[in-house]
Write a structure and sequence with these properties.
This protein has 352 residues and is of the alpha/beta class. The chain folds into two domains: 224 residues, 3-Layer(aba) Sandwich (Rossmann fold); 97 residues, Rossmann fold (3-Layer(aba) Sandwich). It is 43% helix and 14% strand. The strands form two sheets. A six-stranded mixed β-sheet has the order 1-2-10-7-8-9. α4 links the parallel β3 and β4. α8 crosses α9. The longest helix is centred in the middle third of the chain and has 17 residues. The chain is globular. Bound molecules: pyridoxal-5'-phosphate (PLP). Pyridoxal-5'-phosphate (PLP) binds next to α9.
Length: 352
């Protein structure tokens, strides 16, 4: 059988209209990587896996929802799609639109999108517009545009995005045999945590795989769901979750509460420290936002609020490290510059 993407594998479990015409880049099927060295750094006696969503075709989990949204739009004859984005949605929409022969327009907050994401959207041929404002301003604009014109909205307000993103929960259950005890993940616009919860619930009803507790993690400078009110000027190094008015905030809070879990915030420092620790203990390099789930896990364990012993924990790492190369030049040790001489080189590399 030829390999398929998430619609080929799980389409029968997704609520998509009959006119849907699959547009795929063979997304999904990402590895669930055991992380024993990182687990030992954090606590004794827990099992930890990384769901490495950075290995999707455009480098983030957004491809799971985008294949569904673009397939539905293609099936009803849409010619143009539009989205607001902190970066990864833009790259994903642009790639799938190209694949479907559609035009793609993306609105991004000026100066706040990581280089690898902007480059992707441009490379795939989208019309990229920088808005002098935040993601929330951009989202507001695209909703207005799609009310006035026959242009398909592919933000996670689009219900098919959520349907497609449920497939990550199915894959985790299929790989582990059951749901884990805890699922930790970053929360921005809150579509992903909403989709995971819907996916785990659906699988549990179907085949009794159990339900995880959800630990949703926001950045302290963009934590409306922790503060209990919108944030007008969200700020964080984790640009993918730099969102002050999450579109699915209510659903996210409800999902976390229903699961017996919670939504917390971590500082940028904690996020960057975890990005380094994950890369240097396990060889898994993710963009800053993607380290937030793990940073939240570490904080909960350190504060004694989460007892890890005997627990099976999955951390969702949502996007690849290559998306945001700039951050490495700011927060990692920089390369040495030496003259081309063996004695100098020996002195440096052999010193204890
Ligand atoms: C979109 C995104 C998030 C946040 O997901 P939401 O569904 O907006 O909560 C987190 N990390 C990365 C890398 C993303 O691209």
């Amino acid at each position: 059988m030829l390999p398929g993407g998430v619609l080929a594998r799980y389409g029968h479990l997704l609520n998509l209209p009959p006119h849907t015409q699959p547009v795929t880049l063979l997304e999904g099927g990402t590895p669930l990587i055991p992380a024993p060295r990182l687990a030992r750094e954090l606590a004794e006696g827990m099992s930890l896996w990384i769901k490495y969503e950075g290995l999707n075709p455009t480098g983030s989990f957004k491809d799971r929802g985008m294949t569904a949204a673009i397939s539905e739009a293609a099936g009803r004859g849409a010619r143009t799609v539009i989205c607001a984005s902190t970066g990864n949605t833009a790259a994903s929409a642009a790639a799938y639109a190209a694949r479907a022969g559609m035009k793609c327009i993306v609105l991004i907050p000026e100066g706040k999108v990581a280089l690898g994401k902007l480059a992707g959207a441009l490379a795939y041929g989208a019309t990229v517009v920088q808005i002098e404002g935040s993601f929330d301003d951009a989202l507001h604009l695209v909703v207005e545009v799609t009310r006035k014109y026959p242009i398909a909205l592919v933000n996670s307000l689009n219900p098919y995005r959520i349907e497609g993103q449920k497939t990550a929960a199915f894959e985790i259950c299929d790989d582990l045999g059951t749901a884990p005890d805890w699922l930790c993940l970053p929360v921005g616009n809150a579509g992903n945590i909403t989709a995971y919860w819907a996916g785990f619930r659906q699988y549990h009803e179907r085949q009794g795989t159990g339900l995880p507790r959800l630990l949703g993690v926001q950045a302290a400078g963009a934590a409306p769901l922790v503060l209990g009110h919108p944030v007008d000027r969200p700020e964080t190094v984790a640009t993918a979750i730099r969102i002050g008015r999450p579109a699915r905030g209510e659903e996210a809070l409800q999902a976390a509460a229903e699961s017996g879990g919670r939504i917390i915030a971590v500082t940028d420092e904690e996020i960057l420290r975890m990005q380094r620790l994950l890369a240097q203990t396990e060889g898994i390099w993710v963009e800053p936002a993607s380290a937030a789930g793990l940073a939240g896990l570490a904080a909960e364990i350190a504060a004694g609020r989460l007892r890890p012993r005997g627990q099976r924990i999955v951390a969702v790492c949502t996007g690849h490290g290559l998306k945001d190369p700039d951050i490495v030049s700011r927060s990692f040790v920089q390369p040495l510059v030496l003259p081309p001489r063996l004695d100098v080189l020996e002195e440096v590399i052999l010193k204890p």
